[in-house]
Amino acid sequence: ALFWEMRCDLKRRFLLLYATQKGQAKAIAEEIWQQAGTHGLEADMHCISEMDKYNLETEKDPVVIVISTTGTGDPPDTARKLVKKIQDTTLPPDHFAHLQYGLLGLGDSEYTFFCNGGKTVDRRLQELGAQHFYNTGLADDSVGLELVVDPWIDGLWLALEEAFLLQKEKEGMSSDAVSSSLYAAPHVGHELNSNSEVQNLKLEDEGVRNSDVLTQKLVDIHLVASTRDTEPSLVHSVPPVSQSALNIPALPPEYIEVQFQDTHGENPHLSSLISEGTTFEVPVTKAVQLTREDAIKTALLLELDIADTVFDYQPGDAFCVICPNNVNEVEELLHILGLSEKGEYFVCVKVKQGTKKKGAVHPQHIPERSTLKFILTWCLEIRAIPKKAFLRALVECTSDAGEKRRLQELCSRQGASDYTRFIRDSNVCLLDLLQAFPSCKPSLNLLIEHLPKLQARSYSVSSSNLYQPGKLWFVFNIVEFPACPTRRVSRKGVCTGWLAELVAPLVHPNKNTLDTKGGSSSTKKISIFARPNNTFHLPADPSVPFMMVGPGTGISPFIGFLQHRQKLREEHTDWEFGETWLFFGCRHQDRDYLFKQVHYFAFILDELRCFLENGTLTHLKVCFSRDSSTAEVAQPKYVQDVIRLYAKEVARYVCGDKKHMADGVSDAVVDILSMEMEADKLEAMKILAMLREAKRYLQDVWS
């Protein structure tokens, strides 16, 4: 009892803050909170936006921050208030001298500003005098967050112990007293019961103090691979994983309770699901396929009628589309869960009484009352790649011994590479898992607990409100996920697949879908909300020349730029306008040359030729990566190759759809600066960095 009283008196607490955009940082923070309890620590966990619940100016205990990155290197929306506060230039350099912290940043190296959300906060805290008690971790989603996250969390506990020692020494307490109180916590061992088929790993809720994992001891595991099963797969492992003792995560405590009610009532309006701003339900008035049928990717242009709304935008802005999950996938999920007859029943979702989950609250994205089908269709990201904590929970719902063992492997430390290969990199979703492991029968509450919020999808605006008032264009490729060993059927992207199906009658009309007046027999509507872009806009001074680089659908925002510039030229004939350059690339000139010339009944989409002819676009440079050339001199294949041919001009705007294109363009610009300014490569890179800082080199990179 003495030690527990001393521990309570010492308040072995640390502040745990998370800033999340799509739920990753929150899930990791919850994992840290859960493990903290097993180490005899109290994690005071809050979303970083809840600034009324913590105060960094007076915080004496260690602070752990988990923060993701969004957009083009921005902190998450939830962190904006804090970032604005700490970026106050009047703050003295010792403002946070009292603060000791450790930071874990999440990012994706396929984007230029890797982990910039975390780096921004980290750098500013350092400038204001805060001290690291633990090295900053930067986790990369392109190779697997867990490769950095897991070892970072493992090392956190010793770093915290040392931080507490240092803290108490500063307060004048003897280190001996501190040590005795730190390490004399009661320890409860674990008994593992196993059968001959598979290890039954269960982390008991009570008595766990030493670790968040259990080590599975090797007993007889009679899971012998046949000679033909020498290669691992989603459902099958090979040595050494199949013969390894496993370290698996703690079983996440359940905290949701679902009660079925009646079938009477109405589902909430979609606007109630969105907290980011005002939603608008708008009709789709045009849908045009910009690519030929034999193109590798299918690109569609949609026109929305926003005339009857107050929705406004600038060229370069983005906006979000609220989309549902695929209706067939929802029905299949209901069938597997044994709830096909319950889809139209209203359900009441509550926090389970007595749950051991810290700070358990009703998920904000789940309505207080709605039908089961509404929740699975509009609220939960059923296509999300299951996290290891979810796999750990699914283990308990699986009856087959072999399937149970494989799920244990996939969520274990030893099976990390299998998880990356067969789940993460293969884009496996819950439905794929339930098909691959048919004895796994999860409860509905587990899905609500572990599936993240269904996110609205962002798209770049491809038009100008000045050029065509009341209209909004956007362009997208229909995302395809082909069938593979881990996915039995091919699938389309959640939003792009839904939009393509929704507007199919407009893209391919026939006598059954057109009324006698030639219009669509039923107007299709979608719900949208604004996502303004504060940086990716036309130069305020129209005399400034600018260069645009946009391969594939990356050309989309530049059509809006050029429409806007054309209208300004028409309205202000006395203004001076700078030159405009557009570099565009695609695979085939005759298959996917977007905006070249598309016939849509009486409507001809011929934007690029018109811009050239009226002088809005000064230079158009194109390349085709898959077309064979008979020319004696090899033709450039990619936009960065074309840019190098025009080395005397400086690229100012970049828009593309993947890291490799953006990096290639940046490399080309560095080469140009180095050559034309007779500077070495390092100096050229510094010049490019200065252009970025001055907002003269802008990127809008999407995955």
TrEMBL record:
<dbReference type="GO" id="GO:0010181">
    <property type="term" value="F:FMN binding"/>
</dbReference>
<dbReference type="Pfam" id="PF00258">
    <property type="entry name" value="Flavodoxin_1"/>
</dbReference>
<feature type="domain" description="FAD-binding FR-type">
    <location>
        <begin position="277"/>
        <end position="539"/>
    </location>
</feature>
<dbReference type="GO" id="GO:0050660">
    <property type="term" value="F:flavin adenine dinucleotide binding"/>
</dbReference>
<dbReference type="GO" id="GO:0005829">
    <property type="term" value="C:cytosol"/>
</dbReference>
<dbReference type="GO" id="GO:0030586">
    <property type="term" value="F:[methionine synthase] reductase (NADPH) activity"/>
</dbReference>
<keyword id="KW-0521">NADP</keyword>
<keyword id="KW-0560">Oxidoreductase</keyword>
<protein>
    <recommendedName>
        <fullName>Methionine synthase reductase</fullName>
        <ecNumber>1.16.1.8</ecNumber>
    </recommendedName>
</protein>
<dbReference type="InterPro" id="IPR001094">
    <property type="entry name" value="Flavdoxin-like"/>
</dbReference>
<keyword id="KW-0949">S-adenosyl-L-methionine</keyword>
<dbReference type="InterPro" id="IPR017938">
    <property type="entry name" value="Riboflavin_synthase-like_b-brl"/>
</dbReference>
<keyword id="KW-0274">FAD</keyword>
<dbReference type="InterPro" id="IPR001709">
    <property type="entry name" value="Flavoprot_Pyr_Nucl_cyt_Rdtase"/>
</dbReference>
<dbReference type="InterPro" id="IPR008254">
    <property type="entry name" value="Flavodoxin/NO_synth"/>
</dbReference>
<dbReference type="InterPro" id="IPR039261">
    <property type="entry name" value="FNR_nucleotide-bd"/>
</dbReference>
<dbReference type="GO" id="GO:0050667">
    <property type="term" value="P:homocysteine metabolic process"/>
</dbReference>
<dbReference type="InterPro" id="IPR029039">
    <property type="entry name" value="Flavoprotein-like_sf"/>
</dbReference>
<dbReference type="GO" id="GO:0009086">
    <property type="term" value="P:methionine biosynthetic process"/>
</dbReference>
<dbReference type="InterPro" id="IPR003097">
    <property type="entry name" value="CysJ-like_FAD-binding"/>
</dbReference>
<keyword id="KW-0285">Flavoprotein</keyword>
<keyword id="KW-0028">Amino-acid biosynthesis</keyword>
<dbReference type="InterPro" id="IPR017927">
    <property type="entry name" value="FAD-bd_FR_type"/>
</dbReference>
<feature type="domain" description="Flavodoxin-like">
    <location>
        <begin position="14"/>
        <end position="157"/>
    </location>
</feature>
<keyword id="KW-0288">FMN</keyword>
<keyword id="KW-0486">Methionine biosynthesis</keyword>
<dbReference type="InterPro" id="IPR001433">
    <property type="entry name" value="OxRdtase_FAD/NAD-bd"/>
</dbReference>
<dbReference type="Pfam" id="PF00175">
    <property type="entry name" value="NAD_binding_1"/>
</dbReference>
<dbReference type="Pfam" id="PF00667">
    <property type="entry name" value="FAD_binding_1"/>
</dbReference>
<dbReference type="InterPro" id="IPR023173">
    <property type="entry name" value="NADPH_Cyt_P450_Rdtase_alpha"/>
</dbReference>
